[in-house]
Amino acid sequence: MKSSVYLTSFLLCLLLNGNETCRPQIGTLLEGLLKFIQEGVKFSEEEPPDTKNLLREYDFIVVGAGSAGSVVANRLSEISDWNVLLIEAGRKENYIMDIPLPAHWWSLTDANWHYKTVPNGKSCLSLKHEQCLFHRGKVMGGSSTINFMASTRGNRRNYDHWRDLGNPGWGYDDVLPYFLKSEKITIPELANDTKYHSASGELTVSYAPYRTQLADAFVQGGSELGYNIIDYNGATQIGFSYLQSTTKPGTRMSASRAFLHPIRNRKNFHVTKGSLVTKILIDPITKIAFGVEFLRDDKKYVVRARKEVILSAGAINSPQLLMLSGIGPTEHLKELNIHLIKDLKVGYNFMDHPVLPTVTFLANANSFITLEVLTNVSGLEDYLLYHRGPFSVPGTAEGIAFINTTDPNNPNIDPNIEIFFLSACISSDPFFNTFLGYTEELYNTVYRPIENVHCYTPIPVVLQPKSRGRITLKSADPHEKPLIHHNFYENPEDLETHLQAIKFALNLGKTQAFQNLSAKLHNIPVPACSNLTFSSDDYWRCAAKQTAVSVWHYSGTCKMGNSSDPDAVVDPRLKVYGVKGLRVIDASIMPMIPAAHTNVPSIMVGEKGADLVKEDWGLIPLSG
Ligand SMILES: Cc1cc2nc3c(=O)[nH]c(=O)nc-3n(C[C@H](O)[C@H](O)[C@H](O)COP(=O)(O)OP(=O)(O)OC[C@H]3O[C@@H](n4cnc5c(N)ncnc54)[C@H](O)[C@@H]3O)c2cc1C
Ligand SMILES: *[C@@H]1O[C@H](CO)[C@@H](O)[C@H](O)[C@H]1NC(C)=O
Ligand SMILES: *[C@@H]1O[C@H](CO)[C@@H](O)[C@H](O)[C@H]1NC(C)=O
Ligand SMILES: *[C@@H]1O[C@H](CO)[C@@H](O)[C@H](O)[C@H]1NC(C)=O
Ligand SMILES: *[C@@H]1O[C@H](CO)[C@@H](O)[C@H](O)[C@H]1NC(C)=O
Ligand SMILES: *[C@@H]1O[C@H](CO)[C@@H](O)[C@H](O)[C@H]1NC(C)=O
Ligand SMILES: *[C@@H]1O[C@H](CO)[C@@H](O)[C@H](O)[C@H]1NC(C)=O
């Protein structure tokens, strides 16, 4: 089949050389693909092109076309009297990124900022140079274009907590309408639950049109352990479920595809890609933000904002840009000779979910082994013609369980851990290890022996970590990567919670549902822990410190809080304290990380943030 040759050669080029070099091949690839794709089943509509002639001044400048920024740009440019410029450092979303199964491959291209953590001696110990790889989208759609597409919101308690911390308007009943506003549910058995789901938004949420036996075992195993099979985006969160994903059945629905493709013809909406914002321009006397500086093709541009600059650069780059512009901790900015505009605790309160992808099971059931999937001609054909079959599964992830290990039998409580279920393991794909970054020693010892063996990974996740990290600048040069002090396990309680999550995952493997598939814990120990009794508590504590990594849910670094909160960077209307005409609208404002993968919550922040802007400019009545 010709298209498979195109596909394979293109993917190899992409992985070996990065996105940019392979662009010329896209035409050839698409030619091959299009032969097989009938009219009407195209991957997606066109994204908005780069605007040829930028203006000197816009009403609003939005920095970052990621999960939140895409929504903000869409909702603000609904107002035809306002013009909006969206500035994105990354480039065009590649059609190939719409294919869900190899989600992790896109992090190996230049659609990623390629950040690494500062070693903390307590985690990421079996990673190359003790550094975890902190992936972050640098492309239209931001991280939603390279993520695993899990669609989760968190629970009532998460958002009521935000409100109770001093943020009126952010309780669950306040934010639920915004989750509904974005959503276009395509799952028939959930669509009728109109209290929690909506079919009228832009962001399609679906089940994958293909399931392995392992996915069924996961849900049945949960049932055997006494858990309900639930809609985790509904009334309660405790239980097991197949994965709800931000996909239009079988293809990725990035935030750009959902919110920017449909508005590509709006006259009052301009986009500039490949454009790195280096500074927010703020008058040092009046403290009014009046524009931004950015670099495109090594040329410097200055664009002014009549009304507001909105920072949606994500939880690593939004604090970086604030600090580069003089907003941040006095001492730190002084060290770097950055002129201080406003002393705020920018970059503090970094939160993320540590996960352990090295809890590996072998099973006698089909899992996603890349070589098998790629050589399954009927699978490829099924995908190209109908967007179904193995390629339609997001990053091999098929299920989610949310559990509270302190009160496991109570279905009406909030979870402290998650099991994120992948029907694959680190040896299933030659690029998983490149994506995660473990040492050669670890890979060769533990995973090389099980290449091409069917396996699955019930990834234990700590949902409410107590450790806090921090983002700082390495220098005042905007090209220099910021320093990420992730601080996993800094608070030892997180390690103990992780241990409980690991034990839960191990018990799940003992259920009849999995035993029917001859599930067996892969028992080659992590080399650095091999002197401990395999699978003892101490073994797992050691394995977690060696091999737990990020699931890339960075949040909290421009914390939202009221005026009595000394750690707050933005107020509950997302305005930066002490500066006029400047807001942050993205995952950095979250005062607490929700018990959720953070894409849909970031989109919600974008929806709600856009409404706050409209209210403040008198366009819609204040909601109180
Ligand atoms: C590999 C991976 C897998 C993930 N899996 C999931 C998942 O399955 N489910 C889920 O819910 N979440 C997942 N996440 C997390 C989720 O995607 C993010 O939390 C979410 O996208 C964050 O949204 P944001 O708007 O805050 O930032 P982003 O989406 O990261 O957007 C920020 C944008 O700003 C741009 N930008 C930054 N600095 C500048 C600058 N100086 N100038 C111009 N532009 C700039 C960036 O290029 C980017 O496009 C994953 C993330 C990664 C990386
Ligand atoms: C800020 O929020 C806290 C917690 O809800 C509350 O105690 C305090 O009074 C609030 N302060 C202001 C100025 O609103
Ligand atoms: C929605 O429909 C399903 C059957 O498809 C049913 O089981 C469920 O109870 C309904 N939910 C609501 C809220 O009506
Ligand atoms: C190959 O693809 C077909 C069609 O999508 C699918 O039914 C089958 O399960 C796949 N086989 C494997 C081993 O993945
Ligand atoms: C888990 O259960 C305990 C005990 O009932 C409860 O105190 C806690 O709030 C629940 N949720 C979390 C996130 O720990
Ligand atoms: C396990 O397999 C047996 C025999 O095929 C079957 O009867 C039983 O229903 C299966 N149990 C589960 C939980 O899948
Ligand atoms: C096991 O080895 C690690 C380092 O390899 C060491 O830190 C630890 O003390 C050892 N534990 C025991 C019980 O020997």
TrEMBL record:
Residues of the active site: 553, 597
Domain Glucose-methanol-choline oxidoreductase N-terminal, chain residue ranges per copy: 314-328
Chain residues that bind FAD: 139, 277, 552-553
Signal recorded as keyword: yes
Cofactor: FAD
GO MF: flavin adenine dinucleotide binding; oxidoreductase activity, acting on CH-OH group of donors
Keyword Signal attached: yes
Signal sequence extent: 1-21
PROSITE patterns named among the record's database cross-references: GMC_OXRED_2
Pfam families: GMC_oxred_C (PF05199), GMC_oxred_N (PF00732)
Keywords, ordered alphabetically: FAD, Flavoprotein, Signal
Domain of life: Eukaryota
Matching PANTHER family: GH23626P-RELATED, GLUCOSE-METHANOL-CHOLINE GMC OXIDOREDUCTASE
Family to which this protein belongs: Belongs to the GMC oxidoreductase family.
Official protein name in the record: Glucose-methanol-choline oxidoreductase N-terminal domain-containing protein
Source organism of the structure: Coptotermes formosanus (Formosan subterranean termite)
